[in-house]
Amino acid sequence: MSLLRVEDVRITFGGVTALDGVDFSVAPGEVFSIIGPNGAGKTTLFNVISGLYRAERGTIRLADEDVSRLTPHELARRGLSRTFQNLQVFFRMTVAENVMVGRHMAEHSSLLSDLLGLPIVTRQNRATRAAAIRLLERVYGLFPVLAEKRQLPAGGLSGGQQQMLAIGRALMAKPKLLLLDEPSLGLAPLLVDQILDTINRLRREGMTVLLVEQNASAALAIADRGYVLETGAIAHAGTGAALLGDPKVQAAYLGV
Fold this sequence. Notes:
This protein has helices at residues 42-49, 72-77, 95-101, 108-115, 126-142, 144-148, 159-171, 189-204, 216-221, 240-244, 247-254, and strands at 4-13, 16-26, 31-35, 57-62, 65-66, 80-82, 177-181, 208-212, 225-230, 233-239. The chain is α/β, with parallel strands linked by helices. Strand 9 (225-230) and strand 10 form a beta hairpin. Helix 3 packs antiparallel against helix 4 and helix 3 (95-101) packs parallel to helix 7. The chain has two domains: 4-89 and 172-254, 3-Layer(aba) Sandwich (Rossmann fold); 94-156, no CATH class. The strands form two sheets. A six-stranded mixed β-sheet has the order 6-7-8-3-9-10, with helices on both faces.
């Protein structure tokens, strides 16, 4: 059974083919990694899956529902959440406020009041509010630095901390499928390891992750399965271990 199924997707821009016949599936609870050079179509694929672009041909299925023509907010309601290369952090808002943006629920203001030590000014459904607080505690458990800095402006965070914030905010939506677009981009090796460890932990908790990465060796090392995208088409596919051991993949992407 597939949680995500991408079937024969094609899209062009100004007569240039960005994706051509892309076809793959992601099973529940697995990490599926997509690697490839700049301009291969990785982010374009994410934008098609998340509803920002509409494919000219092909189908996107989420939990066996055809979602090819749904908008991003409709997909979010069905359990798809993502991050972007441009992290979209709200610099003037606090870390806590940034995290809560991902919740999109009526209890938003009272939860922020709790976080900031202010009086609760609105009446909310207690069970729903408690569930959101548990999600928030989970995010802070994954990224303790966000808890430490929760009352500070997000603009003061380092690049790695902003990446953690972006992932934490995406998790607040309680997604069925989490799309991570270049989560290690521009980060120091130690922070890359922390981000990858977090992805592994999410997998152990049952989260399904679709990961786009230029750090090919790191992405394949944690992948259950994956593929190599070249000029909008799938060039190689297999388990993470098989792709790591493929001489063609090694020569082209792993520096071996």
